Amino acid sequence: ASKKALAFRTKGGVIRGLMGKFRVYEFEVKAHRIKEPLEVKKLDTFTICLAQDEKFLWEHIKTHRPTQDKRLEPQPGAGYNPPLTEGLVAKAIDGKKKLALMLLDGSIIVGIPTNESLYSVLMKVPEIRGREILVYKHGMAGAKLLEDIKGL
Fold this sequence. Notes:
Elements: E1 6-10, E2 13-22, E3 26-31, E4 38-41, E5 45-50, H1 51-59, E6 62-63, H2 65-70, H3 88-95, E7 99-103, E8 107-116, E9 120-125, E10 131-136, E11 140-145
Antiparallel strand pairs: 1-2, 1-5, 2-3, 3-4, 5-10, 6-8, 7-8, 7-11, 8-9, 9-10
């Protein structure tokens, strides 16, 4: 509704545009210079953030090469059964603790989660001046509290 340009990081690459209709399993993206909206499957989308922050954000994201080399793909039902320890995100939200999320493409996002749903985690990422990024659970390879990891 705000007409803000968004960046959708998908397993096929980055799509920049405005979100149109949003459904449980897919949404429409009105991309620049393309007349018809693109149908984007939620299962193929790892993150969504403001387009103006996308370049800056991904310059500050760590990459785990072994995971990236495996070229992992989301499995059907992964949104329901993400590789997360039960209660981990809630614990991080309550304690305002940093969480390190590893995506299937090998990206590691470090931020403070602000909200969790059945399918996603909304995180404030310090490197983008406290802006929020939506991370889909089916795009995760794993997650841990940053304080429990000895270096990234």
